[in-house]
Amino acid sequence: MDTKTNLYDLSFADLIQFLADLGEPKFRAQQIWHWLYQGYAADVHEMTNLSKGLREKLATAVTIQPFVPVTTQHSSDGQTKKVLFRLPDGQYVETVLMRYEKRRTLCISTQAGCAMGCVFCATGQMGFFRHLRVSEIVAQVLYFARELAASGEHVTNIVMMGMGEPLHNYENTLTAVDRLTAPDAFNLGARKITISTVGLVPAIRRYADEQRQTPLAISLHAATDAERNKLIPINKRWPIADLMEAIRYYIAQTNRRITFEWALIHGQNDTLQQAQKLGELVQGLLCHVNLIPLNPTAGFAGGPSSLERVEAFQQELARYGVSSTVRVRRGIDIQAGCGQLRDRVLREAEAEKLRIDVQVQSGE
User: Which of 94, 136, 227, 316 is catalytic?
Assistant: First the structure.
């Protein structure tokens, strides 16, 4: 396991001190900071305005990339790309690039695995392994920023909807957000980053108190406790009434619109009755609903709603004055839902190991 300091883990003040300990002047920190967040350097040897001696000194003490890309998938339409990264301790995380007409959106991970256990989510099905470090969150963005820059493009939006529950890893997630939005760092507008949560009530209240400008999305998926308990186990700890109280507090504190994510599962939460319950629940609230036909996973028997059921659900919401959008499904042919690529790669590796073991035992 790499014991070198990852530069993305350091704040600017930390970087100044780190260089001072190496006997380097303060102005070197500004040069390196620029290379990290605006020059997209993947290696210290790319930092050409540093002396050769300093670059060699840094090469022995620091690293930039905290992971190794293991495999990449491209959707058939060429609009979605997913990369599976292996971390130094053997854990895996996934990041997805989605191309739209005017946007280049990244879906990034904040944890290896997830403790929330949402039954329809491939990451929730695998369980929780650990929180990602600041460097491991930030580096996902810079990896793709570097790639896009080569073709004259840039990251326009980030959604923290990959592997993990962002607000469960609160400190590292928000430190990464601060780094990505800082004018002297990556300098992406705060409102271009959306943080998704299944509903960790204390964290939502803390987020509201901090007056953050990054939008918040709530993975709701059901409008009654009886239905939500089946899909999202954390609802048993913080039921819908508690969650809605925290959401109203967030809106009151920030005057920002909340987004509700709703994965439409055929015959389960795509009924007119659930649409009516949702309409009653959020009517009059400063909110918007994203309707997403389910991305199927191997560990969940449910399937996506038909176009007719999606349209009927949306029309029913409109009767309550609730605005909604049917999100374009991306990367279905490459299983772009978070956790699916990791799961497939590990299953294939296990099958290959078993095949080799059998060959050894049989003397082939």
Answer: 94
